[in-house]
Specification:
The protein contains 8 helices and 13 strands. By secondary structure, it is of the alpha+beta class.
């Protein structure tokens, strides 16, 4: 019975807005997303010990994002007969990377996804249809087709082609909508067609993984500073942003660094070892950044993709 788990998670999400619960459509698993390892450890402890929920937990996974690596175009033609009616659609589109630093000033003519920074443009799409050229195609049909194609793109952006993570920082321009007619233009056909075209374009765009980045503040005794810095710059793949003394104790150093979240799994025990248990840290996820190619290959290899 999954009801006790669902009720417990609903209660926790009301208390903690940073906790997100979703379901994997393919596996049926319940996915719980949080702000890091310690956050999810607390959630698991509360579910098992405080709320007495009988549940098993899988290994913790990092929630990556996917993004196009270069500009790519694709066209897909959809022909299918459903319930005795033929549906015909064709969509050509272009996908391109969108630099997060340029997104606010980007001149777009489409819908912007605030969560993942994607932009979908359909207003200037060429309508390839004999009916449209002859002036007999109803305006309502065109509006429905454009909306359906944009909806298909938005839906497909929720699942990338590398590992199935959401696509972020992508600019999608729908260039052409073909085979539109009053009789054969099904919104469902254009929605499915646009989704397939986007997947083809993403595969051709040399897609890349984006990894979540965290801002970590580490407090450690001066004697352990060298080991802490070496670990942050090395095994953690971090970038030290600032180094200060603690306001109350000059013998305590405070290191501010930006680190990939995946490299911080298990960091609490590592830090205890480096500082003889005298150091502490806090961190907050601040966004996503491009992953080095060799690190991406490791992730894909572990997922048996390459």
């Amino acid at each position: 019975d999954e009801r006790p788990l669902a009720e417990a998670l609903a209660s926790l999400t009301l208390e903690d807005p940073s906790l997100h619960v979703s379901a994997d459509a393919e596996t049926g698993q319940t996915l719980v997303s949080g702000m890091g390892e310690l956050h999810l450890d607390v959630v698991r402890d509360r579910l098992l010990n405080d709320m007495r929920v009988n549940a098993s937990f899988g290994a913790m996974r990092v929630a990556y994002r996917e993004t196009p690596g270069q500009v790519a175009r694709a066209a897909f033609e959809y022909v299918r007969e459903t319930a005795g009616r033929m549906a015909h659609a064709e969509v050509e589109l272009e996908v391109a990377p969108l630099d997060p630093e340029d997104e606010e000033g980007c001149d777009v003519k489409g819908e912007r996804d605030a969560a993942d920074g994607n932009v979908v443009e359909v207003a200037d799409a060429v309508v390839d249809s004999a009916a449209a050229n002859g002036g007999t195609l109803q305006g309502e049909v065109l509006r429905e087709v454009r909306a359906a194609a944009a909806g298909g793109v938005h839906g497909a952006l929720a699942r990338g082609v590398l590992l199935g993570f959401p696509v972020a920082h992508a600019r999608v321009r729908i260039l052409r909508l073909g085979h539109i007619s009053d009789e054969l233009s099904s919104p469902a056909a254009f929605r499915a067609c646009a989704a397939q075209a986007l997947q083809q374009a993403l595969r051709a765009s040399s897609p890349q993984l984006l990894e979540p980045l965290a801002r970590a503040a580490v407090r450690c005794p001066a004697g352990a500073l060298g080991a802490v810095l070496a670990d942050l710059n090395g095994a953690r793949r971090g970038r030290v942003l600032a180094l200060d003394e603690d306001a109350a104790d000059a013998e305590v150093k405070v290191v501010l660094a930006e680190v990939p979240l995946s490299a911080m799994v298990g960091y609490a025990s590592v830090l205890r070892s480096l500082s003889a248990g005298q150091a502490s840290f806090a961190m907050q996820v601040v966004g996503f950044g491009a992953m080095a190619q060799h690190e991406q290959q490791k992730v894909l290899s572990r997922a048996h993709v390459v």
